[in-house]
Amino acid sequence: MKHWALVIVDVQNGVYSAEAYPADTMLLAIHNIADAFRRHGAPVVYVQHQDEELAAGSEGWQMVPDIAPLPGEHIVHKAHNSAFRGTDLQGYLMDKGVTGIVLTGMVTQYCINATCVAALEHGFEVVIPDGANAAYGFENLSARAVHRLFNRDIWGGMARVASVDEAIGLPGA
């Protein structure tokens, strides 16, 4: 039987904005997945980036209030793209008996991708709900195109890209 944890990466005031795709639905998707994990007693882990631009305690460093952690939920503080590098995430997940993670949050092409690759390297199964991660565009590639590229093409060969509804059902499966 799989033991799942929800990992919510960098949904912070200084990272999240309406310019990301799909910002308009991502927060609700993460909220609904987190509610399902909590109902089943499955771990909900928050990852909070900290650097010169996101200084600890600053407004930008704070979690977006709509999906902020509840008391007692584990928060990982990181300084690199991967939520595993230089943090206690792997040990925490192993201590909880977690064998797979549902990976959500910001930013698709940076921290979500780096955390996905690291999780796989550490032996975790990875499910990424399409619609529960958001991307920013580049000069010649829209945010929607970046999101699509990762969710439909890149991750399909290494992680399982699932619907939000499928992710909601995982902790009870």
Describe the model.
The chain is of the alpha/beta class and 173 residues long. Helices cover 32% and strands 20% of the residues. It has five helices and seven strands, in the order βαββαβαββαβα. It has helices at residues 23-39, 89-95, 108-121, 143-154, 164-169, and strands at residues 4-9, 44-49, 74-78, 100-106, 125-129, 133-134, 160-162. Strands 1, 2, 3, 4, 5, 6 and 7 form a seven-stranded parallel β-sheet that branches. Helix 3 (108-121) links the parallel strand 4 and strand 5 (125-129). The relative contact order is 0.21. The mean pLDDT is 96.
Keywords:
Rossmann fold, 173 residues, alpha/beta
- The CA-CA distance between the termini, in Å, is 8 Å
Overall domain count: 1
β-strand number:
7
CATH class: Alpha Beta
Q: What gyration radius follows from the Cα positions, in whole Å?
A: 15 Å
Low-confidence stretches: none
Strand content: 15-25%
Fraction in helix = 25-40%
Show the helix and strand layout.
Elements: E1 4-9, H1 23-39, E2 44-49, E3 74-78, H2 89-95, E4 100-106, H3 108-121, E5 125-129, E6 133-134, H4 143-154, E7 160-162, H5 164-169
Parallel strand pairs: 1-2, 1-4, 2-3, 4-5, 4-6, 5-7
Brief account:
With 173 residues, the chain is α/β, with parallel strands linked by helices. It has five helices and seven strands.
